[in-house]
Design brief:
By secondary structure, this protein is an alpha/beta fold. About 30% of the residues lie in helices and about 25% in strands. The protein contains twelve helices and 19 strands. The strands form four sheets. The protein has an eleven-stranded mixed sheet. A four-stranded mixed sheet has the order 18-17-16-19. It has a two-stranded antiparallel ribbon with strand order 1-2. Helix 2 (about 20-40) packs across helix 3 and helix 11 crosses helix 12. The radius of gyration is 22 Å and the shape is globular. The protein binds zinc ion (ZN).
């Protein structure tokens, strides 16, 4: 079947399902997956029994609230226990065709197994996101993401299934990638936001004009928050003359579980696959849709390793009001990782808020480093930035302006602002940039 390329929807019926019907479908799948998990995954049998709950207790979507949470630690503690895939897995190993693993940046890497059906549905979802941002079979697409172990690697298959011409770029050195952009004239690329920006800078330094020498019309970014920060998205768009779309994925679920549409107001999440809850960051109390807290996901259709009430560690909210694009699946707004958030003078501060301020200052390059430290038994933060080449203001004036802008946006001033020359900060990286250094002596256990 060939699709009408003028239809804005990949799967119109699914994407525009009235919420009542969408929730009915969620409930059917929830009942099935909770029972499947209980019957086949030793961990869920034990934890449901201990909590005194049974799969039959699910009569409405809200009934999920009776069931216990799991988190990253549950995954780490149960993998390899009893079998290679561990106690959260609900299928035998011979039914598994693919595993991805997390980066392990917050501990032991955790693996995420897929059955053939899980994997096919994963790619169907990825095709839907690519179509949503306007990719069509006549596009040329460079997938410039790490392929090794990473769940975002196979997403390229979603673009191929859509019919686009795909170039499996991986993490090529910048010079090779720029050569490909020039020679093959691809129209869509996916990479991290910091790399999209740095690649643009490198292109300019190498004598290319990304707007004229390349043909990039759309840039997908994921893995860092930048794509949801308007100032960062605009900075990337200005270099490339292309539209930037933010995607959000979890190694535990899909390479992209959610994606922006043309209105860039939150990311549509695949609610046919994921039931979203939000809980208070500190108390775990269940919040209403629209309130900001930790996002908790239940996977509705993944059978290899169902996740029932998985605390993601991401702070955000879900907006289920209608989107102008006509899609009925809710939009998530992510503020940051729970472990990146810090508290200064009783104010919750996210590095993404600081980034938004820095990227709006025309005297700065946009690179930054945040240091969090303890003084007099209270947390403070300092910000290091680079003054752009050609700015004639003295450093003290620039520092005072940055400090005032941070105070205005966040509510608390930084303890200090350090000004470096252009290129003076060592934060440029080819993958995820390390921009927050926590110097406090605190033991984090998530
Ligand atoms: Zn939309």
């Amino acid at each position: 079947m060939s699709r009408d390329i003028n239809n804005k929807f990949w799967d119109e019926e699914l994407e525009t399902l009235p919420r009542e019907e969408l929730e009915k479908k969620q409930l059917e799948d929830l009942k099935e997956i909770v029972k499947f998990a209980y019957d086949h995954a030793p961990y869920y049998k034990r934890s449901f029994d201990e909590a005194g709950v049974k799969p039959e207790d699910i009569r409405t979507l809200k009934d999920i609230q009776k069931f216990p949470f799991i988190n990253k630690k549950t995954q780490r503690d149960t993998q390899g226990v009893g079998s290679f895939l561990g106690e959260l897995a609900a299928v035998p190993e011979e039914d598994v065709v693919f595993i991805s693993t997390s980066s392990g940046s917050t501990g032991v890497p955790t693996m995420s197994p897929f059955t053939k059906k899980d994997f096919d549905e994963f790619q169907e979802t990825e095709s839907r996101w690519f179509w949503q941002i306007g990719m069509r079979p006549n596009d040329r697409y460079v997938h410039a993401l790490n392929f090794s172990l990473y769940v975002g690697g196979p997403d390229v298959i979603g673009a191929q299934n859509l019919g686009a011409l795909c170039i499996w770029g991986g993490t090529l050195p910048s010079e090779r990638l720029l050569f490909i952009l020039k020679t093959y004239q691809p129209t869509v690329i996916w990479t991290s936001p910091s790399y999209a920006w740095q690649l643009g800078e490198k292109a300019l330094k190498a004598g290319y004009d990304p707007k004229k020498d390349f043909n990039i019309k759309k840039i997908i970014v994921a893995g860092e928050l930048g794509g949801s920060i308007d100032a960062t998205r605009k900075a990337i768009e200005d270099i490339w003359g292309a539209e930037v779309f933010d995607f959000y994925g979890l190694s535990d679920i899909f390479g992209a579980c959610a994606a922006q549409c043309e209105y860039h107001d939150g990311l549509h999440i695949a609610e046919n696959h994921i039931l979203v809850e939000t809980v208070d960051i500190h108390t775990g109390e269940i919040l209403e849709p629209g309130q900001t807290g930790e996002l908790v996901f239940t996977t509705l259709r993944k059978h290899a390793r169902p996740l029932i009430r998985f605390k993601t560690g991401d702070i955000g909210r879900i907006d289920t009001t209608p989107c102008k694009c006509g899609r009925t699946h809710g939009r998530i707004h992510i503020l940051g990782r729970k472990d990146d958030m810090f508290i200064v003078s009783a104010v919750n501060v996210f590095p993404s808020d600081i980034e938004a301020v820095i990227r709006e200052q025309s005297d700065l390059t946009g690179e930054y480093l945040i240091r969090i430290f303890e003084k007099d038994f209270t947390s403070k933060y300092a910000v290091e930035v680079e003054k752009a080449t050609g700015v004639t203001k003295d450093d003290d004036t620039v520092a005072a302006e940055v400090s005032a802008a941070l105070k205005a946006r966040i509510g608390v001033k930084p303890a200090r602002v350090v000004i470096h020359p252009d290129g003076g900060l060592n934060t440029r990286s080819e993958h995820k940039s390390k921009r927050v250094i926590d110097e406090r002596n605190i033991d984090y256990n998530i």
